[in-house]
């Protein structure tokens, strides 16, 4: 394979279409300076090196187009074709010749252009060019093309840069990108691990803060569930009771209705019988009247009347007796109800009494504490009249500082958000401007696209999917980063708060000597000044505890925290003597030579095994102080909560994490803790610095996340534009010629739309800048306010500290805590008393109601008994009178007596029947009234059932067992649970879900950190493997190139010596490449010490050695012999001549020795003004350095 011909048209100084035929072997291109000989090399690079880093001597591609020369007729495009012979098919195209063409054409815009590639006059692409040239082992970035600048670069470059040339030759630079990517991913993994660690710490803190709220919420939930169960069970029982009442009333109504219907049937039969009896009685009476005369008639009337009255009296007596009996049953039921209500009332009164007594005792104690507090406050006021005002002022200043700092932080966050928004808007506007330019360009390109029948190469479906995948992945990453940014912001707030607390604590410790009494403070000052030797410090100073156990251990140690550890009892005696002489008070000393270590008791060991452990084991201190700390803590056991402490109480001292204390004697101490209690460990500078370092790290990570968010936003905008462009181009591909007109219209609309969007963005940017200016002013103002108020508070705090007696202040705080606790207890007990009192009032009202009803029933029974008695007496008197009248009737004659007997019998039957009818009528009426009453009761009961159902529906989620406790037990449970709920106070029920959510995040982040650690390890292994591969690849080619270099330098220098040396032979990739040379008859020196010509010769030898290692069929040398002397130039020409037996060489040169050794010579002249011409003379032979003047340029064609 060799380059057969070059065709140029309007390329630089070659104005017309020019053909330069080439032959195999060694060809020199020569000509005067400025004639255009190097433009031939530029033409070859233009085609073969479209992505090459080598510089074609032009500011931009459009400068390669012929500029018009002297006549100022510039062309609109340039074109270069390289025609290769390809009989050996080194270029993978099934053709004996391959023509590679590149065209650059000006567009309508001033700076725009189009670039096209063709293979054998078929439109091609840049990718196909790269593939074909790689197969032919031709690369513009390799050493197929050698320019004078290449030699100069090798001479001037560092040892490390020279070694990288061999990296390229070895093909190991392809690993560099993988290594860089792996290192980048490793660094990203490390950053993510650090970032997640910060967030994880913050989540742990949040979990710790939520844990207590969660425990409270769990307790509340447990009590509330129990309360809900009790209420649900009561509602269930109430509903069942109402349902039973309804069923009972229904049964009664059904039975009464059946009785009424039977009575009505019986009454109808009796009505018929009464009619028959009345007719028969009338007939007998008529006969008696006829026979007996007027006297008999009168007696008969009296007898009839008496009999009616007797029947009525008998019925009245019977009815009264029945009513009395019914009322007796009612009385019995009322008596039983009254007894039950009285029992409930007695139980409630018995229950109320101890609660009321406890309430009164607590209320009395509360008043006593209030009186004592007022007394102490008066004492404080008397000690300093301004103290109260100062305290109030200090508190108000602290609240003001906190409020303003929160506002200041919010303003700073807002300022950061607005700044980020400003940057994002500027990027968006820049992207939109760029997109608008693109659309405008596409709009102008549409006309040309119509002629070509195709739009430019659009993004394929695969590429579009890749863009979309990247877009969605980046969106997910952006969302994740936003979450991390919020988490980091929370961490920054938390760390800032902790740092400020540490700082404030350190300042407070400096001011008040950590709350020590006068004696302790004075002794510590003497220790610091060196007046008394042998004082180690207080127990507080010599220990450190974890935050988790701080409260428990502070309470367990109590006042012994101020105990002073000294070397021996002699030091203690000196200290005591000093305190006595100066009347400074008392202190407790722990001489190490006398302190005894102890052992925990058996019960304490059992408790410790089932809890968090011994207090002394949870404190960090030097082992030499163990006996002192045994004095402080003994075998005190730390437990989780009060419930656990109660399980182990008695014979062992216990303390909970919340600070409740159970003494071995059984005494219990608890309530609100004083916030100003002494604490173990001082806030050291190292701890503050560590916290500050954590804060700086969090801020740094936050800034990185913000930067990543900004970068992601920019890239997302770019991807959106690319996807839009891709979609537009894809739609354009299917539309072809007809749709291109629509495409123009579409781009018109897009340009207008983007212009509107840019205007909107600019408006938004202007508004953002205004807001940013206002917020910045607010930040400055609030910052100044905070600083001013802080200084004022520091002054007030100092005055307050100086003015307040320490012991009195501590007593005031203790009283305030006791008053707070007693107030809570009195309020809770008062609520219980009020509730039970209300229940007693309701039950008492029910008892009085039942008593009144019972008395009324007893009165009604007596009344009915009297009615029955009167009716019977009346019945007996009437019987006597009736008997006398009957005797008179009997004396009137036997026949009449017979009739009278018959009449009496019929009358008795009639009156009995009438009485039965009246009784049935009364029964029917009574039943009707009762059924009506029961109907009313059913309606009322159904209403109560609806209420009961609605009440029960509130507890639909509560599952109830088949067997339920008694109503009394359930009511007691409700009362107890309501009291417990009230005592729990405000509860954060969301803490359960929030804790679970934080726990899930915590576990997820731990897993993610584990994966990142694994990824980091794998990436480190990958980097090591790739570096090993690089080293193997480098060592594989180094020896061969070094041998070639020695041989080539010896040939070119006429017997000199040279070699390549590695700065680090053990790890060649960590060092550079040294070139040492010994020109003939000279000593060995490094390349830097050679003369200019010797440097060029050495560099050229290095290049030839590389070419020999990876031979190519074609080479181009551009004035490489410029700085060589005649002898060395000739040696180089001869070396090229030898190499041309295996490859085609083109060399641009002005040296006669070079032209002499060449097989063929091409002359380049500038005969026309501003335009180059060529003269080709093959096999000119020795002695002909330049073409003859009369030689015509056969390679020039007319345009």
Radius of gyration: 58 Å
Compute the average pLDDT: 79
Uncertain spans: 453-459, 1180-1199
Number of discrete helical segments: 21
Strand tally is 25
Q: Approximately how much beta-strand content do the residues carry?
A: 5-15%
Global morphology:
elongated
Largest sheet: 6 strands, antiparallel
Specify the structural class. Answer: alpha+beta
Distance between the termini: 30 Å
**Fraction of residues in helices?**
55-70%
Instruction: Give the strand order, joined by hyphens, for the main sheet.
Output: 2-1-4-5-6-7
Task: Describe this structure as you would to a colleague.
With 1199 residues, the chain is an alpha+beta fold. It has 21 helices and 25 strands. Strand 5 and strand 6 form a beta hairpin. Helix 18 crosses helix 19 and helix 18 crosses helix 20. The longest helix has 211 residues. The C terminus is likely disordered.
Features:
disordered C terminus, 21 helices, 6-stranded antiparallel sheet, single chain, 1199 residues, 6-stranded mixed sheet, alpha+beta
Summary of the model, kept short:
The protein has 1199 residues and is an alpha+beta fold. It is 68% helix and 10% strand.
List the SSEs and their pairings.
Blueprint: E1 2-9, E2 18-21, E3 26-30, H1 37-48, E4 77-85, E5 97-106, E6 113-119, E7 122-124, H2 126-135, E8 145-147, H3 148-156, H4 159-170, H5 173-383, H6 387-452, H7 461-512, H8 518-529, E9 535-538, E10 544-545, H9 550-557, E11 564-566, H10 569-582, E12 589-591, H11 602-609, E13 613-614, E14 619-620, H12 626-633, E15 637-639, H13 642-648, E16 654-656, E17 661-662, E18 668-669, H14 685-803, H15 806-890, H16 894-953, H17 967-984, H18 990-1053, E19 1057-1062, E20 1073-1078, E21 1085-1086, H19 1092-1109, E22 1114-1118, H20 1126-1139, E23 1144-1148, H21 1152-1157, E24 1160-1168, E25 1171-1178
Parallel strand pairs: 3-23, 3-24, 8-22, 11-12, 15-16, 22-23
Antiparallel strand pairs: 1-2, 1-4, 4-5, 5-6, 6-7, 9-11, 10-14, 13-15, 16-17, 17-18, 19-20, 20-21, 24-25
């Amino acid at each position: 394979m060799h380059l057969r011909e070059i065709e140029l048209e309007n390329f630089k100084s070659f104005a017309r279409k020019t053909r330069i035929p080439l032959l195999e072997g060694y060809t020199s291109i020569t000509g005067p300076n400025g004639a255009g000989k190097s433009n031939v090399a530029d033409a070859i690079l233009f085609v073969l090196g479209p992505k090459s880093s080598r510089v074609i001597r032009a500011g931009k591609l459009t400068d390669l187009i012929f500029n018009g020369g002297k006549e100022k007729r510039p062309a609109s495009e340039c074109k270069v074709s390289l025609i290769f012979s390809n009989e050996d098919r080194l270029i993978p195209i099934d053709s004996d010749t391959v023509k590679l063409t590149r065209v650059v054409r000006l567009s309508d815009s001033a700076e725009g252009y189009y670039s096209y590639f063709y293979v054998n006059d078929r439109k091609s692409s840049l990718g196909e060019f790269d593939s074909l040239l790689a197969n032919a082992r031709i690369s513009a970035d390799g050493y197929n093309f050698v320019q004078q600048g290449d030699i100069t670069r090798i001479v001037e470059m560092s040892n490390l840069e020279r070694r990288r040339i061999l990296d390229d030759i070895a093909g190991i630079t392809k690993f560099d990108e993988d290594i860089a990517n792996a290192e980048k991913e490793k660094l990203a993994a490390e950053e993510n691990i650090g970032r997640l660690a910060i967030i994880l710490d913050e989540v742990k803190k949040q979990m710790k803060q939520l844990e207590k709220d969660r425990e409270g919420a769990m307790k509340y939930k447990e009590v509330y569930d129990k309360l809900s169960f009790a209420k649900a069970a009561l509602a269930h029982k109430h509903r069942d009771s109402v349902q039973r009442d309804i069923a009972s009333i229904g049964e009664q109504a059904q039975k009464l209705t059946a009785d009424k219907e039977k009575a009505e049937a019986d009454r109808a039969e009796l009505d018929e019988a009464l009619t028959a009896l009345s007719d028969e009685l009338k007939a007998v009476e008529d006969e008696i009247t006829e026979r007996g005369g007027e006297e008999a008639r009168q007696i008969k009337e009296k007898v009839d009347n008496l009999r009616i009255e007797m029947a009525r009296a008998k019925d009245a007596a019977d009815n009264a007796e029945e009513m009395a009996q019914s009322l007796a049953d009612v009385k019995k039921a009322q008596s039983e109800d009254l007894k039950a209500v009285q029992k409930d009332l007695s139980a409630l009164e018995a229950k109320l009494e101890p609660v009321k007594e406890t309430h009164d005792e607590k209320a009395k104690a509360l008043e006593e504490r209030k009186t004592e507090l007022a007394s102490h406050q008066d004492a404080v006021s008397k000690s300093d009249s301004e103290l109260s005002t100062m305290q109030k002022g200090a508190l108000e200043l602290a609240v003001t500082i906190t409020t303003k700092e929160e506002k200041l932080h919010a303003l700073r966050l807002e300022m950061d958000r607005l700044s980020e928004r400003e940057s994002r808007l500027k990027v968006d506007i820049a992207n939109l401007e760029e997109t608008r330019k693109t659309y405008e360009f596409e709009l102008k390109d549409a006309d040309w696209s119509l002629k070509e029948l195709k739009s430019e190469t659009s993004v394929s479906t695969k590429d579009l999917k890749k863009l979309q995948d990247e877009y969605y992945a980046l969106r997910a990453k952006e969302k994740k980063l936003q979450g991390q940014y919020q988490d980091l912001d929370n961490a920054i707030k938390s760390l800032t708060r902790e740092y400020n607390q540490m700082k404030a604590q350190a300042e407070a410790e400096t001011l008040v000597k950590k709350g020590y009494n006068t004696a302790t403070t004075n002794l510590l000052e003497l220790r610091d000044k060196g007046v008394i030797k042998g004082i180690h410090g207080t127990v507080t100073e010599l220990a450190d505890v974890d935050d988790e156990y701080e409260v428990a251990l502070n309470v367990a140690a109590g006042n012994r925290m101020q105990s002073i550890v000294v070397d021996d009892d002699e030091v203690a005696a000196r200290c005591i003597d000093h305190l006595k002489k100066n009347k400074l008070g008392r202190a407790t000393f722990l001489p190490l030579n006398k302190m005894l270590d102890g052992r925990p008791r058996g019960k304490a060991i059992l408790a410790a095994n089932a809890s968090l452990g011994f207090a002394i084991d949870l404190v960090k201190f030097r082992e030499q102080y163990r006996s002192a700390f045994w004095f402080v803590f003994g075998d005190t056991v730390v437990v989780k909560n009060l419930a656990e402490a109660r399980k182990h109480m008695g014979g062992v001292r216990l303390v909970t994490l919340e600070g409740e204390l159970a003494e071995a004697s059984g005494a219990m101490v608890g309530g609100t803790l004083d916030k100003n209690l002494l604490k173990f460990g001082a806030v050291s500078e190292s701890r503050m610095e560590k916290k500050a370092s954590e804060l700086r790290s969090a801020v740094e990570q936050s800034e990185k996340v913000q930067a990543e968010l900004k970068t992601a936003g920019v890239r997302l905008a770019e991807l959106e534009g690319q996807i839009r462009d891709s979609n537009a181009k894809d739609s354009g591909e299917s539309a072809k010629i007809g749709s291109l007109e629509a495409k123009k219209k579409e781009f018109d609309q897009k340009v207008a739309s983007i212009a509107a969007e840019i205007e909107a963005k600019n408006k938004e940017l202007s508004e953002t800048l205004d807001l940013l200016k206002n917020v910045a002013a607010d930040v400055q103002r609030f910052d100044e306010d905070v600083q001013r108020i802080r200084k004022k508070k520091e002054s007030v705090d100092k005055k307050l500290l100086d003015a307040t007696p320490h012991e009195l202040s501590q007593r005031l705080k203790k009283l305030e805590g006791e008053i707070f606790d007693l107030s809570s207890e009195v309020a809770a007990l008062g609520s219980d008393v009020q509730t039970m009192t209300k229940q007693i009032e309701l039950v008492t009202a029910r008892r009085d109601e039942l008593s009144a009803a019972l008395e009324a029933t007893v009165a009604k029974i007596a009344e009915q008994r009297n009615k029955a008695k009167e009716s019977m007496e009346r019945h007996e008197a009437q019987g006597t009178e009736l008997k006398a009248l009957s005797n008179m009737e009997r004396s009137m004659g036997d026949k009449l007596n017979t009739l009278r007997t018959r009449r009496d019998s019929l009358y008795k039957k009639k009156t009995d029947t009438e009485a039965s009818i009246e009784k049935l009528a009364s029964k029917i009426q009574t039943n009707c009234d009762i059924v009506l009453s029961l109907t009313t009761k059913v309606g009322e009961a159904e209403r109560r059932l609806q209420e009961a159902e609605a009440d029960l529906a509130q507890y639909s989620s509560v599952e109830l067992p088949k067997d339920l406790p008694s109503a009394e037990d359930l009511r007691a449970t409700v009362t107890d649970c309501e009291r417990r709920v009230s005592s729990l106070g405000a509860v954060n029920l969301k803490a359960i879900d929030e804790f679970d959510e934080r726990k899930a995040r915590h576990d997820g982040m731990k897993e993610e950190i584990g994966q990142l650690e694994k990824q980091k390890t794998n990436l480190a292994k990958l980097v090591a493997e790739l570096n090993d591969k690089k080293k193997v690849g480098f060592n594989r080619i180094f020896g061969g190139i070094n041998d070639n270099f020695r041989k080539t330098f010896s040939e070119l220098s006429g017997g000199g010596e040279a070699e390549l040396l590695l700065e680090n032979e053990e790890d060649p990739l960590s060092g550079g490449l040294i070139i040492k040379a010994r020109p003939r008859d000279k000593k060995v020196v490094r390349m830097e010490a050679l003369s200019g010509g010797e440097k060029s010769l050495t560099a050229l030898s290095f290049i030839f050695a590389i070419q020999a290692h990876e031979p190519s069929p074609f080479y181009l040398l551009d004035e490489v012999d410029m700085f060589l002397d005649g002898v060395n130039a000739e040696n180089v020409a001869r070396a090229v001549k030898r190499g041309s037996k295996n490859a085609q060489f083109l060399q641009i040169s002005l040296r006669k020795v070079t032209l002499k050794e060449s097989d063929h010579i091409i002359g380049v002249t500038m005969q026309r003004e501003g335009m180059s011409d060529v003269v080709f003379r093959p096999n000119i032979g020795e002695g002909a350095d330049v073409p003859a003047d009369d030689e015509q340029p056969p390679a020039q064609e007319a345009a």
